[in-house]
Structures are given as structure tokens and as C-alpha cells.
DNA sequence: CTAACGTTTGTCCAATCGGTCAAAATTTGC
DNA sequence: GCAAATTTTGACCGATTGGACAAACGTTAG
């Protein structure tokens, strides 16, 4: 029987095996990119044969597509939480912290996303121009409100969001470089706490000393 | 005759054709990654046949290796220029500006590098732990001196360098996302000037308003 | 002219790839 | 318990890939 993504009816085994495959595919895709990964690799990581895997996902691209669809929701969750209710600086600090925690706890997801964007986002371009842009525009308005109220320094809200993405995801996407440069001593688990301390200071106070 | 990378003797044609191939390979590799690129693609982009290309570079990996070796030097040039002679804040501002200009003018080089790091830097790991680490450690010392002298706020110099890399290279590596989010109006050529203004303010003053 | 050298091409090959298919093995519904 | 449905497997296929190779093509020095 066909097991397409549009078929809602799933047996227990289908549910389990599909999860197993997606987990394995996340591991493989995030490490080698889409074209650099083979169905055999994913099948082996999932502990099944290639034809068996293809019974659950008809095409390699279906796996990737399912993975990306799920990813985007969880990936944007921290930004969605950015809200108008609290103190602006506290809100932003919380957003930076949450994004950094995601880089620490879900580096494979970050790399999968980075891979897709690096290749020109051929599979998720509509989502970027639609859902993502809408969300960012909305949050940029919130931030603009804070600026008008004098709660934070006036600057470009879009580029502010970009800089938070860039600095936090850097610790997932460029992890090997970060660890190589920090060396064995400072490159251990403590690097994320060091990063958190640094980023908080950077975004709040910048580098210019208070005279 | 063999034309390996260790052969210093090159005819005029060899010099020219090798450059042509490297330029084409940069275009292809940066867009599709190493495994996502084929020799045929590179050969076509260079305007020659596949066997002809393989006459100048014996293996696909030789092209990539030559490209990466050249890249690292030019890529680290801005950091090398960071010097102790000028005013610290001016020096840092200049470094950020130069890095952002490189993201604008050499996005393919940035993406090629990002691709390599994302895949775990399998081909340049020794360079990261050696040359790169040495350079960063050296510049971190310079920055530490500025902090001791009270010229800039005390913080972690390594993570400061990471944040400059992340924020500037973001505009090359995640270009499609930046343009998608900014939309047709603000996503044009002016986005780099907006970014430059924003980053200068972020790194100098942060977000906390001067009361 | 021609021999030596550098360059280019067409043809070919083995390996790997994504994907198919029929048959076997297993699970499930009654 | 048994038939139907689902799951798993081994064998296979055509396309693409990186690369080898010898023959042909140019170019130039004597």
C-alpha cells in the first residue's frame, strides 16, 4: 500500500518506522547535505534495508521535505514567543538565550537548515518569502514599538533579528571551527555559557566603555 | 605530461587554463557543495571537455584543495590587518567593515568556506587547529591589551571575533534568506549599507539606551 | 619537413546512485 | 486458525558519476 505524506491513515508500525527514518535522515542530511547523502546511508542509520526504507518514503526528496516542514515550526518557535508583554530588554535577552540553547541542543537541525539556505533554499523558498517574512515583519513591528517608546536604542529591527540568528546559529553551524579555535581547554561544554555571557553583553552594552 | 600541484613548471596555457578551471569550480562548488558538484558541471562552466579538465587537475578533489588553500589566505587577510597601532574602536570598526565588504564582494568564497565547515571541515581541519587558531589567539591577545587599557569593555575576545565572523558572513551565506525576508524594496543593493550601519551601532553601543 | 612536445577529444569502464518489482515473511482482523 | 493486508527482502535496472586511455590535433624548434 502507498504511504505518501498526504495519507493520514498510518498503522503503528508506519508511525514508528517513519520516525526512525526521519531521525536517521536528520543525522545524515545535516552531516553531508542533501546531495551528499545516499538512501543507503539513511537506511543503514535507521537499521533497515534500502527497499524497506523506500516503502515508507517513496523518494529521497520526500524524506527531506517532511524533515524541513517539521523543522521550520520548531525552529521559529523562539521568535514566535517574542512578545510585547514583558520588559523589552528582558524579552530580547530571553530570545537570544533561547536561540543559543537551540544551537546547543539541536545542532543537527540548525545545520540542516543552514545547508538548505546555503544551496539557495531551492526547496523552501516559498516558506521564506511567505511564513517567515510575515513573522519577521510582525516581530520587527513589535521591536519598532519598543524603540519609539525609548525602551531600546533606535536601530534596524530586521538586521537586529539577523544578527541574533547569525551569532547564535554560528555555534551550531560552525561548531568544528569554534572548537578548533578555542582549543581543548576552552572548547569544552563551557563554551556555550561563555557565548551566552558574551552575547548578552554585546547586545545590551556593546563594546564602547561607559566613561 | 603530469600537471600536479607540486610541479612548479607551468606553461602559459597551463597557467591560464588552471585559473579558468578554478574560477569555474568556485562558482560550482559554492553553489552545490563538493559532493553536489560534478566534474562535468565545472568543465562546462570553464568551457572545456571533462577529459581536458582532468588533464590540468587529475582529480576532483585536487581542484577543491587548491581552491581552499588559496581561499584561506585571502579570507583571513582582514583579521591579519587588525593591528595594535590605531585607536581600538576604530580598528574594530574597520575590521567589521572589511569583513562585511568581503561578504558583499566575495560571497562565493564565503559559501565555499561555510560549506566546508558545515560538513565538519574534513579537508582543512589541520589548518583550523594550526594556522587559524594561532592567528586568532594572537589577535585575541591584542584585544585583551585594549581591554586592560580600558579602551574597550572587558569581554571574551574569542567570542567577540566569532560574533564578527557570524554577523558579517551571514550576509553572504544566508543571502537568499536575507533578501527573502527584507523583500523586494529593502532587499536590494542597499542592504549592505543598512547592515554596516546596524553592525557598527550594535558593536559599539549595544541596545541599551543611554539614560 | 619533421620530430618532439604539449593539448584536446571520443570512447570506454567500474562504481555508485535512486528507484522498481515480485516474492517471501510477518502481522492483523475476524 | 486463517485469509487478507502489511511489511521486508534480494535481485535487478537505467542513469550518472569520477576517472583512464589512446589516438588525434596543434605548435614549435631545428
Structure report:
- The structure is a homodimer of 211-residue chains.
- Chain A is mainly alpha-helical.
- Chain A has 2 domains: 12-58, Orthogonal Bundle (Arc Repressor Mutant, subunit A); 68-205, Tetracycline Repressor, domain 2, CATH 1.10.357.10.
- Helices cover 73% and strands 0% of the residues of chain A.
- The first copy, chain A, has 10 helices and no strands.
- Chain A has helices at 12-32, 39-45, 50-56, 60-81, 88-105, 107-118, 125-148, 157-173, 175-186, 191-205.
- In chain A, helix 1 packs across helix 4 (60-81) and helix 5 (88-105) packs parallel to helix 8.
- The longest helix of chain A is centred in the middle third of the chain and has 24 residues, at 125-148.
- The radius of gyration of chain A is 20 Å and the shape is globular.
- The relative contact order of chain A is 0.10.
- Chains A and B meet through helix 6, helix 7, helix 8, helix 9 and helix 10 of A and helix 6, helix 7, helix 8, helix 9 and helix 10 of B.
- The structure holds a DNA duplex (30 and 30 nucleotides).
Amino acid at each position: 500500500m502507498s504511504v505518501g505524506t498526504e495519507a493520514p491513515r498510518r498503522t503503528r508500525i508506519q508511525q514508528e518506522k517513519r520516525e526512525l527514518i526521519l531521525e536517521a535522515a536528520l543525522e545524515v542530511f545535516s552531516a553531508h547535505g542533501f546531495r551528499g547523502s545516499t538512501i543507503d546511508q539513511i537506511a543503514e542509520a535507521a537499521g533497515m534495508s534500502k527497499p524497506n526504507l523506500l516503502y515508507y518514503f517513496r523518494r529521497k526528496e520526500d524524506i527531506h521535505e517532511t524533515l524541513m516542514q517539521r523543522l521550520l515550526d520548531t525552529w521559529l518557535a523562539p521568535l514566535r514567543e517574542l512578545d510585547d508583554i514583558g520588559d523589552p530588554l528582558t524579552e530580547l535577552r530571553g530570545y537570544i538565550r533561547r536561540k543559543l540553547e537551540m544551537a546547543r541542543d539541536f545542532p543537527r537541525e540548525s545545520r540542516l537548515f543552514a545547508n538548505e539556505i546555503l544551496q539557495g533554499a531551492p526547496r523552501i523558498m516559498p516558506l521564506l518569502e511567505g511564513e517567515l517574512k510575515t513573522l519577521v515583519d510582525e516581530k520587527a513591528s513589535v521591536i519598532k514599538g519598543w524603540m519609539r517608546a525609548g525602551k531600546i536604542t533606535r536601530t534596524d529591527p530586521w538586521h537586529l533579528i539577523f544578527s541574533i540568528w547569525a551569532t547564535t546559529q554560528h555555534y551550531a553551524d560552525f561548531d568544528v571551527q569554534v572548537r578548533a579555535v578555542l582549543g581543548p581547554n576552552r572548547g569544552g561544554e563551557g563554551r556555550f555559557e561563555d557565548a551566552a555571557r558574551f552575547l548578552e553583553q554585546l547586545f545590551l552594552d556593546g563594546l564602547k566603555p561607559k566613561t
